[in-house]
Design goal:
The chain is α+β, with helices and mostly antiparallel strands. The protein is built from 9 helices and 9 strands. Helix 5 runs antiparallel to helix 7 (about 220-225).
Length: about 300
Amino acid sequence: MFMRTMHGEHVLIAGQRDVPGMAITAPARRSLTASAVGLAASLTVSLAVLAPAQPAFADANAVPTYEVKIDLTTAALDASHVPTSAVKAAFGITGSAKARSYEYYDTDALDLNAQGWDVRLRHKSGSDFEETYKKRFPVVGGDIDAALDEANAEGFDSSDTNYDAQVDWGYAKQTLSFSNEKSHGASGYSGTSMPSSSTGRTWLVNEIPGKLDDWLSDNWGSDTLKVSRAHGPVTSQVWSGAWESSDDAGIEVLPVKDSTGTGTEYVVELSFKTDDYADAAQLHADAIAVADGHGWLYHGDILKTQLILDRY
């Protein structure tokens, strides 16, 4: 609990002067002095009580991990839309391609997204379905602490172990997110196949976390999800590896509808995960320098979630 201190406010107790013809004994002087001290203390307490208090948080801010995300141009791909051997070598990518399909659930008006919430259903080959409920907070001017304070005020703090905090660090944009992840069995679904829109929606409504459900009002989240639809699915290929301080590096190649809906564009995202801010800053700077030096760098941030919500 924090209390705002008072600055520039002083209580002045005027010194008692002898009145001509009046004798003040030593005991009387001590009594007057004690009264003055008592009055000062009383006024100080009153002022402190009346002073406005600073916002207080019951629990400490969450401690985020970091994921550096740098977009590359299609110059990083070969004719088969696979990262070139030069790109893989430059960023420590050694793994073979693994497929994943995913889609986002929202209304046509994107009501969830407008409140900073994204709901995703994802299926990696050979795995159960992943249900992710994510709340986003913008990081303005690189001030991650301010974003963490804002999240704390909304109930996302270090005490809530249901959510994982992460800073996504793009070319020029940073976003703080809190993700609640759940799983659903994939029996009957081969490869990366996805359920029907209505089936996936039912799963997500049934598993909705309380923070989302009661975000604007009781049951707002589930009521909104019930009238949502799947935006997608999309299927991407991911190659993994390790680079510099990150033992979780990757390149994702995601084909998406172009803005006309008649063609296909390829999003190429290079990513590195780390628990440490200083490591993330170094990875960010070095990845940009290497990609730019080879002519692969996309000078901007491509937001995959928004792209899928808008085009599907």
